[in-house]
Specification:
about 450 residues, alpha+beta, Cytochrome p450, 5-stranded mixed beta sheet, 3-stranded antiparallel beta sheet
């Protein structure tokens, strides 16, 4: 115990109460989080054993401390790294420490603004192709549409023309299957024995290995072709470690590409789905977006400048991700004892951060549950600093943030410019898995 100080934690949720609600929490933890925050405060704890504690917080000071001020003391939890890496490999999302820093420094240049500018035309072509023939004047679930679009954008940006439709469809199926099983393993650790005994673990490990084989074949074909495609695969193949001058091994390359697929498509699909539904629910906002797009379309801009001028459209996306953050929760474990928000916590405490609750905290936001894009425009945007984290914060902020923003703005602007969106759904349901997914977000499209 550091300095002879006793450990003290926030008000504790009784363990019996936690387990009593365990199955319902597994299915949808968000209502319970809100209930517990209102009852126990903005940071509460659960004692899991004599030396093991869990904390959950929506306190902006706690978030700032963990993600920025003392980030070196907080690693991604073993829950994330062990479970995810088993199926997804050891890429940026699943690693810690010096290896994470090495990989981040290596890959970061591929996501600089200048490199992203080379990809936006590929993004635009894919978006136009995928959204040009939507079902007209009948309500459909928008998520499968946006999920396919986001997957195709990532795949095209990674591989350009190096993979067939059948190959990409198989990759998408595998990633979806593995993600859904991952959630089961994380939320139902007491059923781990059954998952192993029933062959489910073996099945999903085999699927993961199949996806790696597919990626290996794509990489080898690219090397044999000696062609240049100006896509992310070219950029990743060209990277070199500063100290050795060596490229990534194929295993490292596949690990990182797998993470890019997983982290880069479903989060964007969620954001596009929620944003589309919010626009359908708010026709006056939709009209404002259309007017802005129409104005900018009549100007002579490069594609990057065109995106930059769609400020109101961007504010709509920001507000959508405030209300429905795709990465709705994260967690960390402290390497050594720490003083946090007036509490002295033992090393290896599991600390969860609810971005969903932080983004709707009544102390930080006026009308927190209302859709008000204007809060992200001009001077008003300054008030969002410190409690808005759609892409995380600190050194581990999402490396693909710029990529995602370009894609979101291009997709929403194309959608609104070509279709009028409407919906009969007054409140969309949510499924908080690894990411926050919409359930039955029904939309109708009518050509303009």
């Amino acid at each position: 115990m550091s300095g002879g100080k006793k450990y003290n934690y926030p008000e504790s949720l009784p363990l019996l109460k936690f387990f009593w609600h365990a199955e319902a929490i597994r299915k949808n933890p968000i209502p319970f989080h809100r209930q517990f925050f209102n009852r126990y405060g903005d940071t509460f704890s659960v004692r899991l054993g004599r030396k093991k504690w869990l904390m959950l917080s929506r306190d902006k000071e706690v978030v700032e401390h963990i993600l920025r001020k003392n980030h070196k003391n907080y690693y991604k939890s073993k829950i994330q790294t062990n479970f995810l890496s088993k199926y997804l490999g050891h890429g940026l999302l699943t690693i810690n420490g010096e290896y994470w820093l090495q990989q981040r420094r290596l890959i970061q240049p591929a996501f600089h603004k200048e490199k992203m500018a080379q990809l936006v035309s590929l993004m635009q072509e894919t978006i136009e192709k995928e959204l040009s023939n939507l079902p007209i004047e009948k309500e459909v679930d928008v998520f499968p549409i946006m999920n396919r679009l986001a997957f195709k954008v990532v795949a095209t940006s990674l591989f350009n023309v190096s993979a067939s439709e059948e190959t990409l469809a198989r990759l998408q199926y595998i990633i979806q299957e593995v993600q859904e099983f991952l959630v089961k393993e994380v939320r139902l650790p007491h059923k781990g024995w059954w998952f192993r005994l029933s062959g489910q673990v073996k099945k999903h490990l085999a699927l993961s290995e199949e996806s790696r084989t597919i990626l290996q074949e794509i990489i080898e074909e690219r090397r044999r072709s000696r062609e240049t495609h100006n896509d992310l695969l070219d950029m990743l193949l060209a990277t070199r470690y500063e100290d050795t001058g060596e490229p990534m091994t194929d295993k490292q390359l596949i690990d990182e590409i797998t993470i890019l697929f997983v982290a880069g498509h479903e989060t964007t699909a969620n954001a596009l789905s929620f944003t589309s539904w919010l626009l359908a629910r708010h026709p006056e906002v939709q009209q404002e977006v259309f007017s802005e797009i129409d104005k900018v379309n009549h100007e002579n801009n490069t594609l990057i400048n065109h995106i930059g001028k769609l400020q109101y459209t961007k504010s709509v996306i920001d507000e959508s991700m405030r209300l429905y953050p795709p990465a709705w929760i994260t967690d960390r474990e402290n390497l050594v004892d720490d003083d946090l928000a007036g509490f002295h916590i033992r090393k290896d405490t599991l600390v969860g951060i609810s971005f969903y609750e932080l983004h709707r905290h009544p102390d930080y936001w006026d009308q927190p549950n209302e859709f008000i894009p204007e809060r992200f425009l001009g001077e008003a945007k300054k008030k969002t600093t410190g409690h808005y984290y759609p892409f995380g914060a600190g050194p581990r902020m999402c490396i693909g943030m710029g990529f995602a923003i370009y894609e979101l703005v291009l997709a929403i602007s194309y959608l609104v410019n070509n279709y009028e969106l409407s919906t009969s759904v007054r409140q969309v349901e949510m499924n908080p898995l690894i990411t926050l997914k919409p359930v039955s977000a029904q939309l109708s499209f009518r050509r303009r």
